[in-house]
Amino acid sequence: MDINRKQHEVLRRASLFLEENQREPKMAELLLQHYLGVSRAKFFTMMREDVPEDVLSDFQDALSKHAETGVPLEHITGFAPFYGRHFLVNEHTLIPRPETEELIEMVLQSLPAEIEAEPITIADIGTGSGIIAITLALELPQAVVYATDISAKALKVAGKNAERLGADITFLQGDYLEPLIEQQIKPDIVIANPPYISLDEKTLLSDTVKNFDPAEALFADENGLGAYKAISNRLRSTLNPDGGSVFFEIGDRQGKDVQRLLKSALPEIDVSVIRDMNGKERIVHGTYGMLSSDQ
């Protein structure tokens, strides 16, 4: 029996290999668990077992590719976790970040009890893989949920995710709010995690991000504020005129600028900047009318 195929030895060598190539050693554990097809708990009970030859071959190929190119785990496995569920992702969709789960929590917490019992219309702008729209549809079964994206390829992934997870979503192709305006859909809540990184900051990103996440989901003009401006300027033509709410996920130094854009487009809106669990600016929340915080 070849001791070099023992799981603990395979893992040790792989972790050292990644460290020598300036990659995160933890990736070796995640990749090996994926190719073994076992839970994390089961994985740690198997340390003295042999790794099957076919698994070892696939694992080593993926390990080398990650070390060389930085290809993310999610593109190797084809899935990404979000809010307790697993979503299909690929090169046409942004890999979900943990911070976006806080955006979901903020939307859910913002709804008064009397609103939660009634139908409410939500629109997710630039849906990508559909994580926001699908999660809200599943957490709020009474909601009517729309999701827009300009990318037909992203919408295809989002549609597959909705079907897999049993979420009832209406997907619309088009630029930001335009599909809603064209169909005269007036949501109570607009939520968006748009591109917000300035092109000047591209060199600061890791290759795992800038070479694999779609550029149109990362970068925006006007110092990263272009998408917020485009959406804000069309909100009056989109939101329920009796009152509505908007949620933006933002970069950690964009709070005042996005707040200014919203107030410029809708002077009557009440806007707040919310920090995430790490104390960074992460969400801009605007409300007016029936969903206003002072009602």
Brief overview:
The chain is an alpha/beta fold and 295 residues long. The protein is 43% helix and 17% strand.
In the CATH classification, which architecture of the largest domain applies?
Answer: 3-Layer(aba) Sandwich
**Main β-sheet description:** 7 strands, mixed
Ends apart, CA distance between termini: 72 Å
User: What spatial form do the alpha-carbon principal axes imply?
Assistant: elongated
Overall description:
Residues 107-198 form the Methyltransferase small domain. Belongs to the protein N5-glutamine methyltransferase family. PrmC subfamily. GO terms for molecular function: nucleic acid binding; peptide chain release factor N(5)-glutamine methyltransferase activity. By secondary structure, the protein is an alpha/beta fold. The protein has two domains: 3-69; 79-289, Vaccinia Virus protein VP39 (Rossmann fold). It has helices at residues 7-20, 26-36, 40-45, 53-69, 73-77, 99-110, 113-116, 131-139, 152-165, 178-182, 207-210, 215-218, 221-224, 226-232, 255-265; strands at 79-82, 85-88, 121-125, 144-149, 169-173, 189-192, 243-249, 270-275, 281-289. Strand 3 (121-125), helix 8 and strand 4 form a beta-alpha-beta unit. Helix 1 crosses helix 2 (26-36). The relative contact order is 0.10. The mean pLDDT is 92.
